[in-house]
Amino acid sequence: MRMSHRGAIAVRAALLGIAIALVLPAGCGGPTQRGLEARKAANDRFERVNTQVAYDQARQALATGQFEVALGYIDRAIARYPSDSSYLVLRGRILLEQRRMHQAKESLDRAIEINPKDAEAHYFLGVVAQRCDDTAGAQANYAKAHELDPKNLQFLACCAELRLAAGDSAGAREMIEQSAPGFEYNPVLQQIRAASLTMEGRTVEAAHIMESAFARDPDDPALAEDLAYALFDAGEWSECMQTLEKPILAATRERPDLIRMRARCLIMLARAVEARDLLLRSTPTGEATVEHLVALGYASWAAKDWQRVATCGQQLVTAHPRLAEGYLFLGATERERGNLQASERWLEQAQTRGESRDLVIQLRTRVQAQLSARGNTAEGG
């Protein structure tokens, strides 16, 4: 049967309506579901970019010491994305710099709740614990950070340093040697190794390690200083003095502790007069420190400048009566002057304040022997 002209028009109209329905979105003029999702994704990207900008601004403010500004930025970032552990870690770091330990710990704990594998969160929790004198907590968190990110040498160094501080020098050294391929190229790890060997009494090996570390980075004043100490501990007096004279240490050469080290080297090299004069020239204006008086007293003793020894002794007894050295210096001076009974009295007081001092015990024993010999001579006479 042939379709009428009117029927054909109706069919074509129906088909056109179906096609239009398939093409046009549901709801006259409304967006498609795909369009809504695209718009939401674009908004999310925009929001994430803004949040990342706030995070970067917080980091920059932290680096320049603007802690409150940094906290404002990171709090805005966290308000937008509260489940991003890296934002909470940065907040913990800022609070840590402000010494707000409890709040820093809360932020870092929250970061670990969100992401237990966040190595930085564990590391900074270790820093918080260490500053709060919680050595066990610090060690546990540093170890966890190292476990999660074994290639991070800072995490390893903190673990090893805590072991060293606890007296486990062999454990600290073995941790470095077993955990860090190429550790000999890292100056921080080499410093810890050298300190471990020194604690074990292997001072010559420690000095060799520091020599190698300094040779790789001769522009680092901290390495030069550590090398000087290592050489001193190893009894390499001349090498220690040569290191102290390096240009890299020009800015700190006149620091009191380095002056005292140079003076001790001079004494060991039988140049006691130079050591005494060095210390006299560097005597601080006003009241001399106890460390300076002790060093000057020993240098003057080695130089046989007994008047100076007595002066140091008197100053120490007056200003630091609990210290053994003042009484020791006065006892040594009186012995040199032939006043054995006065010497014995001073040395007795020195021994009560430092019973483990071998020098005090040895000198007192000699004085007592001289007194005994003198008494026997008098009786014999």
N- to C-terminal separation?
165 Å
The share of residues in extended strands comes to: under 5%
- The number of strands is 0
CATH architecture of the domain at 49-172 and 188-195, please? Alpha Horseshoe
CATH superfamily of the domain at 49-172 and 188-195: Tetratricopeptide repeat domain
Q: Please tell me how large the radius of gyration is.
A: 37 Å
What is the fold-level CATH name, i.e. the topology of the domain at 49-172 and 188-195?
Serine Threonine Protein Phosphatase 5, Tetratricopeptide repeat
Assign the structural class, choosing from mainly alpha, mainly beta, alpha/beta, alpha+beta, or little secondary structure: mainly alpha
Helix tally equals 20
**Low-confidence runs:** 18-29
Shape: elongated
CATH hierarchy class name of the domain at 49-172 and 188-195 = Mainly Alpha
What are the secondary-structure elements, in order, as H or E? HHHHHHHHHHHHHHHHHHHH
Helix content: over 70%
Q: Mean of residue pLDDT? A: 87
Sheet with most strands: none
What does this structure look like?
- The protein has 381 residues and is mainly alpha-helical.
- Among the domains are: 132 residues, Tetratricopeptide repeat domain (Serine Threonine Protein Phosphatase 5, Tetratricopeptide repeat); 70 residues, no CATH class; 54 residues, no CATH class.
- The protein contains 20 helices and no strands.
- The longest helix is centred in the first third of the chain and has 31 residues.
- The termini are far apart.
